[in-house]
Write a structure and sequence with these properties.
The structure holds 2 protein chains of 2 kinds. By secondary structure, chain A is mostly beta strands. Chain A is about 0% helix and about 50% strand. Chain B is mainly β. The chains are: A mainly beta, B mainly beta.
């Protein structure tokens, strides 16, 4: 199993550009999550999904959108990138909500200039 | 308002020393988790504690869940440079998601 994969690993965007961060898992997990981590800080939940076709907002959803058309994939869309979105983005998944053990991808480092 | 407060925020020690980091909340949690994150990587789960007063050991790491399930601690004995990383506690405030503390950045110098 590859676990949770994320692409790209690094990206530089200009202000106002858009992009999609890809996340995929091959563990047949129902629950998937997107976090952002600013330097030296913990993780803030952006969006999460409890299954295909179901998504919900986390703590910091503004400026982002998600979709979940399959169990495996959970892309994160940034529209009109702003410098405040410079961060490291982590995707995670878990088998069952009650387990809460989250498996994380390696992250995407995004810089908006 | 931070649901989970971790302390200290930074800790730099010499190899062989012992240390304790703390995770505190005013809320009761059904469980708490500890993750370790190394530079350039995603967090990796170390342990989950679910019962008030529970103590779990993972080699030189000892995890404790408070009796009232509002706090947890991580104690490392004879720290090694390989223990260097960001230690995060996390708990489920509700539903199917976790809230994370801000983390303790540990540096163990050879």
């Amino acid at each position: 199993n590859a676990g949770v994969t994320q692409t790209p690993k690094f990206r530089i965007l200009k202000i106002g550009q858009s992009m999609t961060l890809q996340c995929a898992q091959d563990m047949n997990h129902n629950y998937m999550y997107w976090y952002r981590q600013d330097p030296g800080m913990g993780l803030k939940l952006i969006y999460y999904s409890v299954g295909a076709g179901i998504t919900d907002k986390g703590e910091v959803p503004n400026g982002y959108n998600v979709s979940r058309s399959t169990t495996e994939d959970f892309p994160l869309r940034l529209e009109l990138a702003a410098p405040s979105q410079t961060s490291v983005y982590f995707c995670a998944s878990t088998r069952l909500a009650m387990d809460y053990e989250q498996y994380f991808g390696p992250g995407t480092r995004l810089t908006v200039t | 308002t931070q649901l989970l407060e971790q302390s200290p925020q930074f800790l730099s020690i010499q190899e062989g020393e012992n240390l304790t980091v703390y995770c505190n909340s005013s809320s009761v949690f059904s469980s708490l988790q500890w993750y370790r994150q190394e530079p350039g990587e995603g967090p990796v789960l170390l342990v989950t504690v679910v019962t008030g007063g529970e103590v779990k050991k993972l080699k030189r790491l000892t995890f404790q869940f408070g009796d009232a399930r509002k706090d947890s601690s991580l104690h490392i004995t004879a720290a090694q440079p390989g223990d260097t990383g960001l230690y995060l506690c996390a708990g489920p405030p509700s539903g199917s998601r976790l809230t994370f503390g801000e983390g303790t950045q540990l540096t163990v110098n050879p």
